[in-house]
Amino acid sequence: MVDVDTASKMLGRKNAVFVDTRNYWKYTKAHIPNAFNLELYAFHWVDTSQKSLSLFAEQMTTLFSTIGVDENKQVIFYQNNSGYDAARGVWLLHFLGQKNAKLLDGGFNLWKRRGFPVSTKDPDQFSPSLFKAKLDNNVIATRDFVLAMLNRKREKGVWDKLRILDVRKKGEYKGYYRRALRVGHIPSAVNVEWKLTLRKDGTLKTAVGLRQLYAKLNLDVNDEIVTYCQSGYRAAHSWLVLRLLGYKWVRNYLGSWYEWGNHPDSPVTMA
Question: Which of 11, 78, 196, 243 is such that its CA lies 20 to 30 A from the CA of 205?
Answer without folding.
Answer: 11
